[in-house]
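Below is how a single chain appears once it has passed through the pipeline. First comes the sequence as given, then the structure the pipeline wrote out for it. We keep one example in the README because the format questions we get most often are answered faster by looking than by reading.
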Amino acid sequence: MSLFRVGLLLFFVSFLASSCQVLFPNYLLREDKKYSYTELVDTSANAQTLMPGDVITFQLGTRDGYGFVDVLEQVGVSGNANQNQGGNNRISYPVRPDGIADFPLIGELNVLGMTRIELQDLLEEKYSVIYKDPFIVLTVTNRRAFVFIGRGNAQVINLPTENTTLIEVIALAGGLTNDSKAHKVRVIRGDYNNPMIKRIDLSTISGLKDAGMIIQPYDLVVVQPTTQIAPELLRQVTPVLSLVTTLITVIILVRR
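Resulting structure:
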């Protein structure tokens, strides 16, 4: 086999390798033209519902003009209480896998699928049986999103508020890198068996209309990496080329 044919064969093999995703086996969540996508419709922060693994933190107060009343300490509740600067206990309880959270004095409640506001109203109703005109300040912590930017850059980002936007999440992850495509950003939400996906272009000013979308817990934010074929192809082909060159040299020496 002539050197020309060997070179042609190597070029053909390399071309097939790049088209068959052999050159970039570490790329996650590629675009799949055969997949039937369900387009994501952006929803408000108030629509976020409680899920297993969420941690509910609340304070119990009254509306009698005295501010927060440390009623939980008075009845001997110590639980997972964190002391704040005002001297009031901020009690934290996790949502179990079955959607149940166990609250002091009122016991277990199924909170799965409820919004923060709905749970806040329910707790005020439950505690009104025990305390006159109570009110609740409730937050949900431990909410996070998963961000994949470019190549080899994946982070779990804790969402600081319910109104955390896409551009904030990207900033918290350190921003885009030289090997990420700003015009190919995807937000993946919902059941992984049938996810909803929103495609976003942040490469131009017109993309700002989507930069403010609210990121919900457990969303996947994927910024597609660039495909630097030339250096990767050289890295993949170099060992093969060395082997072929060695074989040709040996064949030439033997024929002499």
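Confidence is low (pLDDT under 50) at residues 16-20, 81-88.

See the next section for the split statistics.
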